[in-house]
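In this supplementary section we document a worked example of the pipeline. Step one takes a protein sequence of length 304 as its only input; no multiple sequence alignment statistics are reported here. Step two produces a three-dimensional model, which step three serialises into structure tokens for compact storage. The input and output of this example are shown verbatim.
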Amino acid sequence: MTDGIPVDLGCFSYLARARILRVDQYPEPDTGAEVLGVLDALAGDGPITAVTASALGLTCALAANNVGDDPAGHQLLQHLDRADVRHRLTATDADPTPELNVITDRAGTRTWFAHLAQAYTALGEADLTVLTAARLAYIDCYRIMTAAAVRAIDTAVRAQVPLFLNLGGDPLHPAVAHAAAEGDLVAVQTSLPTHRTGQAHDLAEHLARTLRPVAALVTLGPQGAIARTSTAVHQSPAGQGRPRHTHGAGAAFSAGFAAAYLAGHDLPTALTAACRTGTDHCAAITERPLRATGDRRLVSSSTV
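The serialised model returned by step three reads:
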């Protein structure tokens, strides 16, 4: 619970369980592949951002959909509680816990299968109180949840809480841009895959010109990230370390940036801290061998 107590970072997104299966390479159609490792984790950038930022010392809260009254739902709520992320979420028997299944191979290819419709629908009625008492409101703005994101932005703007918007690689929706124009926009973040890194500067310039944030952030996976302001462009390489997985990398980046920003650091320092946090998150994740299916613990950078 939050009970109106101020927090450093209030996050808004969907909440679901992610199951990540690692294979050596994707099989041909109508064939199969051996699963080499399986990982149960949080899904939704907002929850991962909150958990990671809490591990960095911030007081964090999460506004999201409720989960199912099932083992996966109770795991998710317990995970948030262990990470000291404040929330008003409950487990109900209305719907099962939303789930995201991800397949990844040694080449870094990621394919996902989402069962999230009920989560997106429920976000329209999510309790947004946690956003009104925050020093910074982090809001996921995926295209599929535009209406809910706009509602969250409006709530933060009315409470005069600065905004950190995450597009998650999706195009900027006009409704999001319109809502954000009324607020104090600290940062807007998006991502590009490796084969499109040449478009990063143009994309950052577009976001900076359209939204006028303090910083337009574009993450580039192993190539690091860039930050565009109204007067300059900053670039930082990815942090040192060998990633074991990329699930949640962008969310951990967001947490690192938010923590550095709220600590009063300048943009180059915050960008470097964000890249380091993203890499540390991926390097810290440990896979659970398939034979250990009795162990249902959720794994993230805050629990290993």
